[in-house]
Amino acid sequence: MTDGRIVRGRISGFSPWEEEFGYSRAVAAGDHVHVAGSTAWVDGRIEHEGDPYRQTLAAFGVGLRALAAYGLTADDVVRTRMYITHARDAEEVGRAHRELFVAARPVATMVVVDGLIDSRMMVEVEIDAYRTGLAKTLEAPEGNQP
Predict the structure, then answer these.
(1) Most buried residue, 32, 36, 94, 99, by CB count within 10 Å?
(2) Residue 108 forms beta bridges with which residues?
């Protein structure tokens, strides 16, 4: 919040479900950016089928690209959530998370779920980021990612 108002900006254009289900990939609210659930859906296909480690890297890659539109990096991440379809994949998913966020060390949650929107998806991630003063510099990018 700055001067009593919340500055917002929305980023879309990462998956077909955003338009179909009516959500944005990322929304900035003041100095915070919240990234929607992201999977290994890249360029119209699921990457790394059967590989939870590489799917996790790809899913976080989608989320981190959305953060980059606001000038943020992995170092600005304060919270992550990981939804995995098999408990046996926890170590591989955790290893990928550690590689990406070892410096930032955000709070994190990992939950086993019954399934995701496509049975080939093994992991879905969410990211929350924060940077003091972001709202003052934000030009509220609207529409598709540049």
Answers:
(1) 36
(2) 80
State the DSSP string of 77-90: EEEEEEEES-GGGH
Q: Which of 85, 98, 97 is nearest to 124 (CA)?
A: 85
Nearest to 2 by CA among 142, 140, 137, 128: 137
Could you identify the residue written with the tokens 């992995």?
Answer: 74
Q: Which residue type does 38 have? A: S
Predicted confidence at residue 14, as pLDDT, reads: 65
- Which tens digits make up the pLDDT trace of 41-92? 998 899 999 999 999 999 999 999 999 989 999 999 999 999 999 999 999 9
Cα–Cα distance list, 25 to 62, 86, 90, 105, 134 (Å): 9, 25, 25, 23, 18
More confident residue, 28 or 22: 28
**Which of 142, 15, 141 has its CA nearest to residue 71?**
141
Distance CA 95, CA 84 (A): 13
Contact 67/100 with Cβ under 8 angstroms?
A: no
Banded pLDDT at 123 (limits 50, 70, 90): very high
